[in-house]
Amino acid sequence: MLNTLATFLLHWAIIALSLWVASHIFSGIRFESTSALVVSALLLGFANAIVKPVLILLTLPLTLLTFGLFLLVINALVLLLVAALVKGFKISGFWTALFASLFVSLLSIVFGALIGGGDPATTIQMPDNGNWL
């Protein structure tokens, strides 16, 4: 159980660090306090785990039609949803959310690879039985 908790806290810290860096890179993203950043990272993790798969499923025809590019829009909408729910987290508009979601995703992958031992394969693993679904 401690290993699972440590993994959760590590992912939460990576998302928080990525959001913090994005707020310094993009002028349209602002956190009023550290607590807003921490709550945003937690809520973004939950939204990516719960809301995002539902949105992907509902928009599957559009995603297939655009060869997966609509997933970028879904990422931006999830980030805007988190900004709407967390007091003290502001995003100026859709385009800022789109580019910031790309940046946060890529930076999270880089931080995860660096912290996970430098090998991205350590964070991406096949299920035990070899089937994804």
Automatic annotation (TrEMBL):
Signal peptide: none annotated. The chain crosses the membrane at residues 6-29, 36-58, 64-86, 93-116. Keywords: Membrane, Transmembrane, Transmembrane helix. The keyword Transmembrane helix applies. Pfam families: Phage_holin_4_2. It comes from the Bacteria. This is Membrane protein. It comes from Variovorax soli.
